[in-house]
Here is the input.
Amino acid sequence: MVVIVATVLILLVRLVEEIGPEREPGDRFRVIRILDGDTMELLGGDRLRLLAVDAPEAGEPLYKEAIQLLESLALGKTVGIEYSGRRRDRYGRLLGFAYVDSLYINKELIEEGLGYIYLFRDTRLASVHVKDLLAAQRRAIEARRGLWALERIPESHYVARSGSFRLHRPGCRSVQNLVETEYRRFTTREEGLATGLSPCRNCKP
Here is the structure.
């Protein structure tokens, strides 16, 4: 009998070791550190990258404000995560839409103008999550909150490669040599971004 009990305990220990941080979902999703305006560290060592959101990088305007907002929303709290397609990026970070109770964290950052929508070709555009983010970004644009209040030198127009979610200045190297049928043209920056595009990280319109 003692041998059987010992064997069962050994198997349970091995099982727990294999499960790793997944064994306690509530603990695993507790936010212990804010790394930047769109990335959090979770208890257990995982990192969560907020899906479909791109907050300012270090050295850019409103970088600290985005971090402060995320801290107020999530630090020390347990977050629920909803996934869309692949669960991790190439860096091993979790990718998801985060909630504290009913508060949709991704949307709050967009709503306050402290991040842009950042979509990819495999994004499920018809999902409720994305629709909520698009509506929040349009409200932030109209209210000129956060990033939308920053003064920028306007271009004569802006372009986006067909099938892409990035908005470019007309002289950006990413859209050089395109013929008219290969891109969409927008009169203003806001017009393009309101459709769900995000600023190119090279030309930064």
